[in-house]
Design a protein that fits this description.
Layout (H helix, E strand, L loop, with lengths): L17 E7 L2 E3 L5 E9 L10 E5 L5 E4 L2 E3 L5 E8 L4 E9 L5 E9 L3 E8 L3 E3 L3 E10 L13 E6 L6 E4 L4 E4 L1 E5 L5 E7 L5 E9 L5 E8 L6 E8 L4 E3 L6 E8 L10 E6 L9 E3 L5 E6 L14 E9 L6 E9 L3 E9 L2 E3 L9 E9 L9 E6 L3 E2 L6 E3 L2 E2 L3 E3 L5 E7 L2 E2 L8 E3 L2 E5 L2 E5 L2 E3 L3 E8 L3 E3 L3 E11 L8 E7 L8 E3 L6 E3 H8 L18 E7 L22 H8 L14 E8 L5 H7 L17 H13 L12 E8 L46 E5 L2 E5 L11 H7 L2 E7 L9 H12 L5 E3 L5 H17 L6 E3 L3 E5 L2 E5 L1 H4 E4 L7 E5 L5 E6 L3 H7 L1 E3 L10 E10 L3 E4 L5 E3 L4 E3 L4 E5 L11 E8 L4 E8 L5 E9 L8 E8 L9 E6 ...
Parallel strand pairs: 2-9, 11-19, 21-27, 29-41, 43-66, 45-48, 45-50, 50-53, 53-54
Antiparallel strand pairs: 1-3, 3-7, 4-6, 4-8, 5-7, 8-9, 10-12, 12-17, 13-16, 13-18, 14-15, 14-17, 18-19, 20-22, 22-25, 23-24, 23-26, 26-27, 28-30, 30-36, 31-35, 31-39, 32-38, 33-37, 34-36, 38-41, 39-40, 42-44, 44-62, 46-47, 48-49, 51-52, 55-61, 56-57, 56-63, 58-62, 59-60, 59-62, 63-66, 64-65, ...
Length: 1044
């Protein structure tokens, strides 16, 4: 120690001397400039001040400094010095040494932190279970890095929930969670902590953290549903019923859904499955998907050595949540004996005219063979017979007895067998009113059922019932119709006018399958083979109003082209068989080939004597190509349909029109139309799309405008009281530019058949338009995926046309007892238990009445919901029915029960002098098979972060859906950040392509900066769980070298 300018005397201090050290102010700030005066007071044993004592003052240099360090007491025994802070907070201990004695410490100067500057720590969980309580911790620091504590004064942080969810902050005064915002002070350690109770629904909660005086920070906590399972439901069973036939092929797919206590779905949770005895063993573990779904297949269980058979048993399928074994689902299932057990029989209509009244009169006998659950069984032989007829009068003059068209019939795939009953004929000299009847018996496996058709030669009410589909599935709608016709000698069934409108373009040379053999043939050959099928239901007779007519309008290339595209005839991949195939199946119609002048041609108008004219016309069509079209085919569908409608309404070659007839166009087309464009003209439900109308290019230059382009027509037939009046210069925006609207205006039904090339799917946009053509006109849409399916399609259309031409009636439809065959018994159910009535404005319920000229005299709509649900009867007042009058009721039902039902039990048509039994249609309601598949497994097996920040991962996924991955990063350390996505990948996984998916992604070090970082990968698929993994690394500071 050096003393400058000080003269002092060393004084001995007695042992009993007193020393007092004080600081003022007691609190200073760690800012490098704040100071406190240190006062030392020295007294002797008697309490008198000690003068001239040397006092050395020292302190820990990290906290501050003393100046001066050597002081001398004055007359009052007091000496002072100054303590100046540095930038470290704490408590400064002042060391005092008197006359070089041992220093004594006095912790008297408290150094507080400087003004809060930033957050030193912000800790919270980025994701947490819904409904859980989490804490958020904050530590503040000043600009020098000192923790902002509450040793002197508290500092406060305000926490505010920004999102509108059910999360709440703790109310510290009430010790509950009610606050949207709360302000919390720091502790002596500087810690600020608040608790938050998270909402019970998944989502994100945003919280603003606002310390006083510094910038706020918004953090995000993702609320996830990953808690303990609380509920498990078997949400779907495929099929929809608890039983399937034990045929070694059928099976169940059970879909479960797992929920927490708040009814949130749970992802990536295990479900253990087992089957009770005597069921076949079943012990899989399945994992829930992102939607909480997990599905597994049970069955089939074939019996070795016995094809088509399987094990029969009933069992309970038990599903248990692995994380909470008290959560279970028990589902009964059955594999039942599918052998046929019973026979059902019906006749429709029951009353028909005798042949002398109508030589086309007929009734359809329907037999159905069912198993114990009412499911139709195919391949069963049913034998039919009829008894001798009985008559209402003695010795009637009979010229022909009734007969059946078949005595043996094998049931189809749905279990149905149809035969036709032809009634008897009375002599023209029989002047009496005569009723004949006989019993028609059906025999199968020693079971006999009986119906009694009736035929008459005088005026009476004929009742016919129909359903639009006799084989439906559960929850499928069905349209039901009843017609009453005042029949008699002057009555003939409604005539049918049908135009066959087939595609004759080169695409008909493309191959399609034959389901009966290996290999394929041209599409056109199957049209040749089956075109006569549709004519079988039509009645050919001499020219008369009650007879049916048929014609052909085809479409394809024009300009007299006789081009055969290379390779297309015969085998489509080889030109070697072209000549021989053309010579064998497409010989010229004469000495040489003659092409078609126009792209749509009337090959034969509507003719009464259409057999074999129409069939011969179709087999003479030749599928030429168009050399100007290149490798593309001509499909002028729009033009062909336009020309067919004009032919039907009298604007073509057919002069006589019949508005009273059932008018139908059967459209067979390649779905890839082009020339003349969109047949619906872009119809959107209210108008056509004029923006797509093509008026500058030739119609055969399409589809340059794409799928939606269309060529407008300027001439249409306007319906004036049933007659078509030619109307010219029609606007482009006329609704009839949509061919469906044009047909509908003239009561023309369109049956549209899409007939694509093999292995080619039909575009959804094209299917929608072909469906619209059919369904908006009251017709049906079909897809002919193979050539032989044309036969069944044509049969369906022919039968539908005949049903439409039949005339039916009703007065009271009683649904209090509906016969339901299911579970091996015939049970009586209420109609409202087996079906729901569907009210559809202007459709269900709809009643109409026509007079004998075909003029509509009544049109009524009503809602029968109450009649169905409460009274279970639909009652109608038909008024007076004169000969030739026709009345019809239509309504829509939706099936509720699986099995086979007979409607109209105890339903009658009443007149003043008779009651007529309403025929009972047979409807088979099958279980819905949705095509569910078991869910897949997904796991992230590896996730590595290299020093170069290359993130490598391996995902194992067993499904066939799209596999998705996302990569995230966040700042680690004491102030954590929210996850930020920086990469995403999608992988197509058809045919097991993603069993092991290895990939990587790189993130730039320069983007992140130095510090601790965490990384996360998420992976999921539609049919698999979402999985995730995390990893972390540290990045060192970056250094730069400036080069000049």
């Amino acid at each position: 120690m050096v003393l400058v300018g000080v003269l002092a005397v060393f004084i001995a201090i007695p042992a009993s001397a007193g020393l007092q050290v004080t600081a003022f102010p007691e609190w200073i700030v760690a800012n490098g400039s704040s100071s406190s005066m240190i006062t030392v007071t020295l007294t002797n044993g008697t309490g008198d001040p000690v003068k001239g004592a040397y006092i050395e003052v020292d302190v820990n240099s990290t906290l501050g400094s003393i100046s001066p360090e050597l002081i001398i007491t004055g007359e009052d025994g007091i000496a002072t010095t100054i303590f100046k802070s540095k930038t470290v907070a704490g408590t400064a201990e002042i060391f005092i040494s008197i006359n070089s004695s041992t220093p004594e410490g006095f912790p008297i100067v408290k150094i507080d932190h400087d003004t809060p500057y930033s957050m030193q720590m912000l800790e919270y969980t980025n994701s947490a279970t819904v409904g859980s309580i989490q804490n958020i911790s904050v530590v503040l620091q000043d600009i020098h890095g000192n923790i902002v504590d509450a040793r002197k004064d508290p500092e406060f942080v305000t926490f505010t929930i920004l999102t509108r969810d059910g999360s709440r902050l703790q109310n510290s005064s009430d010790l509950n969670f009610t606050n949207i915002s709360t302000t919390i002070g720091n502790t002596l350690d500087g810690l600020v902590v608040t608790d938050i109770s998270l909402d019970t629904e998944p989502g994100d909660t945003l919280i603003r953290v606002k310390p006083s005086g510094i910038a706020d920070r918004t953090i995000k906590i993702e609320r996830i549903a990953d808690g303990e399972p609380y509920f498990i439901y078997a949400v779907r069973r495929d099929p929809s019923v608890p039983y399937v036939p034990a045929n070694g092929q059928d099976y169940f797919v059970i879909t479960y859904q797992l929920f927490d206590q708040y009814m949130n779905v749970l992802n990536n949770k295990k479900i253990e499955l087992k089957a009770d005895s005597p069921g076949e063993p079943w012990y899989p573990n399945i994992t829930t998907t992102y939607d909480g779904i997990a599905a597994e297949q049970y069955g089939p269980f074939p019996i070795d050595g016995f094809p088509g058979t399987g094990k029969e048993f009933k069992t309970n399928l038990i599903a248990t949540a692995q994380d909470n074994r008290s959560v279970q689902s028990v589902l009964p299932v059955e594999f039942y004996n599918p052998s046929p057990v019973d026979l059902l029989l019906s006749v429709n209509p029951r009353n028909v005219p005798s042949l002398d009244v109508n030589n086309t009169s007929k009734a359809i006998i329907t037999a159905m063979v069912v198993d114990s659950h009412g499911k139709g069984v195919g391949g069963q032989t049913v034998n039919f017979s009829s008894s001798s007829p009985t008559y209402s009068v003695v010795s009637p003059k009979v010229s022909a007895l009734p007969y059946l068209t078949n005595f043996t019939k094998v049931t189809d795939d749905y279990g149905f067998a149809y035969i036709t009953f032809i009634p008897g004929r009375f002599n023209d000299t029989e002047y009496r009113s005569v009723t004949g009847e006989c019993n028609v018996n059906a025999l199968w496996n020693s079971i006999t059922r009986q119906v009694t058709p009736i035929w008459k030669n005088y005026g009476y009410l004929k009742v016919t019932t129909w359903v639009n589909n006799s084989s439906i599935t559960e929850n499928q709608t069905i349209e039901v119709g009843v017609e009453v016709f005042a029949d008699g000698p002057s009555f003939n069934s409604l005539p049918i006018d049908m135009i066959f409108c087939p595609d004759r373009g080169a695409s008909m040379l493309w191959d399609t399958y034959d389901t009966g053999k290996v290999g394929s043939d041209d599409k056109m050959r199957y049209l040749y083979n089956y075109s006569d099928v549709i004519l079988r239901e039509l009645n050919e007779c001499p020219e008369a109003d009650e007879c049916d007519r048929a014609g052909v309008v085809s479409f394809g290339p024009g300009n007299r082209s006789v081009n055969w595209p290379a390779k297309w005839p015969g085998d489509d991949i080889s030109a070697g068989d072209d000549s021989s195939y053309i010579g064998s199946y497409y010989p010229p119609n004469g000495t040489k080939y003659v092409g078609y002048e126009d792209f749509a041609t009337v090959d034969t108008g509507l003719e009464y004597d259409f057999k074999p004219l129409v069939n011969d016309t179709i087999t003479s069509l030749r599928p030429f190509g168009d050399p100007w079209k290149g490798d593309k085919q001509n499909v002028p569908l729009r033009y062909g349909l336009y020309k067919a409608i004009n032919e039907m309404i009298g604007l073509g070659t057919t002069e006589k029109t019949r508005p009273e007839a059932i008018r139908a166009i059967v459209l067979l087309t390649d779905p890839e139309w082009n020339d003349w464009g969109d047949p619906t003209a872009g119809w959107d439900g209210t108008s056509v799309k004029t923006a797509y109308a093509e008026t500058k290019k030739a119609p055969w230059k399409l589809p340059e405008g794409g799928l939606s382009a269309w060529v407008p027509f300027s001439t249409f037939g306007k319906n004036v009281n049933g007659d078509a009046i030619e109307e010219n210069n029609v606007a482009i925006n006329d609704n009839r530019q949509n061919m469906a609207n044009y047909a509908k205006e003239h009561d023309i039904i369109i049956y549209s058949i899409a007939y694509p090339k093999k292995n080619v799917n039909i575009e959804e946009s094209r299917e929608v338009k072909l469906r619209h053509l059919a369904e908006s006109t009251g017709g049906m849409y079909f897809e002919a995926r193979n050539g032989t399916s044309l036969e069944a399609i044509f049969e369906t259309i022919g039968r539908d046309l005949r049903q439409r031409a039949s005339i039916n009636t009703t007065a009271e439809f009683n649904f209090t007892n509906v016969k339901l065959y299911a579970n091996g018994t015939i049970e009586d159910w209420g109609g409202n238990e087996t079906f729901d009535y569907i009210y559809i404005p202007n459709t269900s319920t709809l009643t109409q009445k026509w007079n004998n000229t075909g003029y509509l005299t009544e049109l009524n709509y009503r809602d029968d919901t109450e009649n169905w649900t409460v009274h279970q009867k639909l009652t109608f007042d038909l008024g007076t029915m004169f000969i030739g009058d026709r009345w019809m009721a239509n309504f829509t039902l939706i099936s509720k029960k699986v099995g086979t039902v007979e409607l109209f039990e105890n339903s009658y048509i009443y007149t003043d002098d008779e009651q007529v039994v309403v025929p009972k249609p047979i409807i088979q309601t099958g279980a819905t098979r949705r095509g569910d598949e078991p869910t897949a497994d997904l796991e992230i097996k590896n996730f590595i972060v290299t020093n170069s920040l290359n993130l490598e991962y391996l995902v194992q996924y067993t499904g066939n859906e799209t596999l998705h991955t996302r990569l995230f990063y966040r700042k680690g350390g004491r102030v954590t950040g929210d996850w930020k996505q920086f990469a995403a990948r999608n992988y197509e996984c058809t045919d097991g392509a993603c069993l092991e998916t290895f990939d990587d992604a790189v993130i730039s070090k320069w983007l992140l900066g130095s510090g601790d970082y965490e990384f996360k990968i998420e992976a999921w698929a539609k049919d698999a769980p979402m999985d995730y993994k995390t990893n972390s690394t540290s990045l060192k500071r970056k250094f730069y070298i400036l080069l000049r």
